[in-house]
């Protein structure tokens, strides 16, 4: 059975990290009911990571978290729809951005964009073997993701289905680097509106470092019902721009590194060094002193990292490194 969605494909392409383990956490909280996507008290926290930035590539690098939430409702054809907004948890953004309205009717979640176009966002009645069709606006091209398995987790003591969409082995089609996981009533682990954005669903691509978009927490009325096991907190903001690196006095070499890294201290004296992966997790933490420190990173997975040095004086420095 095929289910067609009219997805919007944004300019540019964002790539998601592959092979990531998903922590499905459940918390016993008030109420004993199946979560519904259009619950007025629902809040999604979504972290987006841009790890490919470097001195040679002036793109922004870091992890930033945005909040998706409902604020008010509206009537569409006599039915009540919830108005979804987004607001960054970093920077100086003051006003939430209106994204559209949602309504859940049975197992179907509908979405109405800012122009009033209505389409299916989720179908929580899918079965193993069903596919979700992805259409490219302005073309006849279609591709799909297949439901590979359906599991379940307990949320507030109630079983909720977890849909795992398979990753195709056919290269250079949408299926070759798209995959997804849905939680009944919560939506995609890439974010509540991820099915509308091809860039949010991408999990792998063979030619470049991936970006990632991940749901870190889902809550209702301030109570966390689900938290991603790969994030230390619901809100993770690590920001670093290339122009900061151009003038940074912290030197780390060789970069890229094959497992050993020399880090020069701009000030000397005592300091601490930490290394964080693209999810903001601490991969290494060491104390040091003097003009430099030698790091053995051979036990760490390959990929981009954020290196941070904090001096006893309180002055800190950071640099991006690539372990290969």
Low-confidence stretches: 1-31, 52-60, 168-177, 202-210, 241-248
- What's the overall average pLDDT, rounded? 75
Beta fraction: over 45%
The tally of beta strands, per DSSP, is 22
Terminus-to-terminus distance: 42 Å
Task: Give the biggest sheet.
Answer: 9 strands, antiparallel
How is this fold's topology laid out?
Blueprint: E1 2-5, E2 42-50, E3 61-76, E4 79-88, E5 97-105, E6 108-112, E7 118-123, E8 131-135, E9 142-155, E10 158-165, H1 174-177, E11 180-183, E12 187-188, H2 198-201, E13 212-220, E14 223-227, E15 238-240, H3 242-246, E16 251-253, E17 260-264, E18 270-276, E19 282-289, E20 292-296, E21 303-311, E22 316-323
Parallel strand pairs: 1-8
Antiparallel strand pairs: 2-3, 2-13, 3-4, 3-15, 4-5, 5-6, 6-7, 8-9, 9-10, 10-11, 11-12, 13-14, 16-17, 17-20, 18-19, 18-21, 21-22
Write out key terms for the chains shown.
mainly beta; 2 domains; Immunoglobulin-like; nine-stranded antiparallel beta sheet; elongated; disordered N terminus; 3 helices; 324 residues
Quickly describe the structure:
The chain has 324 residues and is mostly beta strands.
Describe this structure as you would to a colleague.
- With 324 residues, the chain is mainly beta.
- It has 2 domains: 2-239, no CATH class; 248-323, Immunoglobulin-like (Sandwich), CATH 2.60.40.3080.
- It has 3 helices and 22 strands.
- It has helices at residues 174-177, 198-201, 242-246, and strands at residues 2-5, 42-50, 61-76, 79-88, 97-105, 108-112, 118-123, 131-135, 142-155, 158-165, 180-183, 187-188, 212-220, 223-227, 238-240, 251-253, 260-264, 270-276, 282-289, 292-296, 303-311, 316-323.
- Strands 2, 3, 4, 5, 6, 7, 13, 14 and 15 form a 9-stranded antiparallel β-sheet that branches.
- A hairpin with a 3-residue loop joins β11 (180-183) and β12 (187-188).
- The radius of gyration is 22 Å and the shape is elongated.
- Mean pLDDT is 75; it is low at 1-31, 52-60, 168-177, 202-210 and 241-248.
